[in-house]
Structure formats: C-alpha cells, structure tokens
Amino acid sequence: MNTEIIEKIDTTIVDLPLKRIHKFSATTINCKSFVIVQIHTKNGVIGIGEATTPGGPWWAGEAVETIKVMIDSYLAPALIGENALQINALLQKMDAVAAHNPFSKAALEMALLDIKGQVLNVPIYELFGGLSRESMPLKWPLAQGNAKADLEEAEHLMSFNVAQEFKVKMGYMSPEDDVNYIGELCRGLNGKATLCGDLNATWSELTTQKYLPELAAHGMDMLEQPVAAWNRLALARIRDASPMPILADESVCSPQDVNETYRLGSADMLSLKIFKHGGLTRTHQISQIAAANGIACYAGTFLESSIGTAAFMHLVAAQDNINGGNELVGPIWLADDIVEDPVQYKDNHIWVKHSPGLGVTLDLDKLSHYQRV
Ligand SMILES: [Mg+2]
C-alpha cells in the first residue's frame, strides 16, 4: 500500500484583483478572495487546493474567513497523521468532524488529489476514468450592468477567439429592467453569439411565467435558476411552460437533489460546481447519477483561479456527461493568477492540463504579495 502521511496543512487568504467589476444579484465585487491550501506530507510532497465563493457568504453561507477557520480548527487536525492517498476515507472523516461546509472540504480534497496524482505520476483526470476530451467551448459571464460595456467586452472576446457564447447575470434590477437589458444585449449581439441568463433564484414563479415569453422573443437561449433553490415544483412548472431549456444551479447540491430534480422533471440540465458539491469525487458522483437519469450537466463556476479551474477541468475532461457547456473562465477573468503555469485558453476553448496532479504550481511570491494581512 502506498502511504503519504499528512504532516502539516497551511491555509492562506489571498485577495486577487479583477479586470473589471462583477455584479451578482446580491453583491458587486472588485476583487476575488480565495483560501489557498497547502498539504505537506512527511515524504515532502506538497498538494495545493483552493476554495472561493462568489463574494462573501450570500450564495452558500460559507465565506473565505469561515472556510479558513473551519479548516484550521476542525478539518486539518482531523487529517494530520492520516494517509493522504485514502481520499474516500478522509472525506468520511471530514464529514464526521463537521456537517456541511462543502467549500472547505473541497479545498482539502483538491490538495489530496494533487498529492495522489503527483505520487502516482498521473494527471488527476486519470483518477476519474481517463481522458474523454481535451477541451471544451467557453461560455463567458457578462456582468458589468452596463449594456454598452458588456457588448464591448463580448466583441473583444469574440475577436480574440476567447468565447462565442455568453451568459448574463440578472436579478439585481427590476424584472422589467432585466428583460429590457436582455433585449439590448441580444440586439447588440445580433445573432453572432448565444446568450443565456442566470437569475440566481431571485424571481417568483409568477414573475418568471410572466416574462419568459419576452425573454425568449429577445433570443435568450437558456434560463438558469429563476426561483428559490427549494422550490423544485415551481421550477418543474416553469420548465413545462418554457420555450427554452432550464438550468438548475442552487437547486442541485447533493446527490438527493439530483434524484428529486429527476423525479419532478424540474430541469433540462444541472450546473455542477466543485465547491457546492464538496469536491471532485462528489461532483463526479453527481454527474454519474445525472447520467443514469439522462440529464446533461454543465460546468459551472464560482470563478476559481487556475488552481480550482485546473481541478474541475480534469473532471470535465474525464466525464462524458459534463457536456452542456462550461464557464470555467476564472483565470482570464482575474487580473492576476496565483500559479506559475496558468490554465490555457485558445480557439474559444479551455484546455486540460497533462502534468501530474493538478498540473499547476503555486507561485509563492504572488501568494505572499496577495496575502491578506
Ligand atoms: Mg448560477
């Protein structure tokens, strides 16, 4: 049996700059915060991982500050002295120590997988069944809240072959203004690119039913999570009436959520995110349950750096069923990265890393430069 005993776990909060502001339904951010995890083994192997949220605790209740405390005070002490290669056993150990907190657990599991890949000398996609695809087309989130600026950004990205598909954040203005905004963007894109919208659970069922036909008439091609996470019945009724596919995000975090979504018929596609599911192993499990039920999956994002992006891309590269698109744009959306060898983008695609483990190396100068003091 291979053994890599965990000796020490370091956590560091960093605040990375953005190229431009980013508006969510609940907040606007101008920098992005991460908890960077380094797990050291007694043999001298170092695995890295990260956790990030969309900007504070509004999405899932966890924020970088709580993630650091949860890891330092509870999860790391449970892992010290254990064999880093026994990842399933360590996931159970973390669950026994702390309920919930999937973002914190995902950061640690990412570093464990990085160690395992390095020790076995394979990229992480080999741990999930091997390579099915090398790249995926990119969908870019427009989120400046200014149609002229959003359209200029879209034109720029299309002209440099970064992305030909777009998504817009909704829900921070009135429904009428949201619909007009979508109309303005669709007219500006003029059929050159697709546009979907993410409401982040901010509309009621009635509001959604009222405005869906107008959104479709403008040319929007998919609607993400219009209503509250718990309200899967409303989502099913909206889907029945919808002229466009419905993507579930906040509604689907656990394996049981996938079962319920299938039973009620409340989504055409599921947005997977490594942090809301508690890491790559559990995201893989969810994608396989979705596959067994004939539901496609989409690679969603909390706007990770190259560390989290490389991690998710390993699973996307291995799992056939994550084929509905991806928005793993973090490394080119950030104004600076935290690794020496960032994830690569070309020809409107993101590309998987082929080096052992995650395939990215932490830039220690940048770690100390961006460390929160
Ligand atoms: Mg979403």
TrEMBL record:
It comes from the Bacteria. Its cofactor is Mn(2+). GO terms for molecular function: chloromuconate cycloisomerase activity; manganese ion binding; muconate cycloisomerase activity. The active site is at K169, E327. Residues 151-245 form the Mandelate racemase/muconate lactonizing enzyme C-terminal domain. Signal peptide: none annotated. Keywords: Aromatic hydrocarbons catabolism, Isomerase, Manganese, Metal-binding. PANTHER family: D-GALACTONATE DEHYDRATASE-RELATED, ENOLASE SUPERFAMILY MEMBER DDB_G0284701. Belongs to the mandelate racemase/muconate lactonizing enzyme family. This is Chloromuconate cycloisomerase. It comes from SAR86 cluster bacterium.
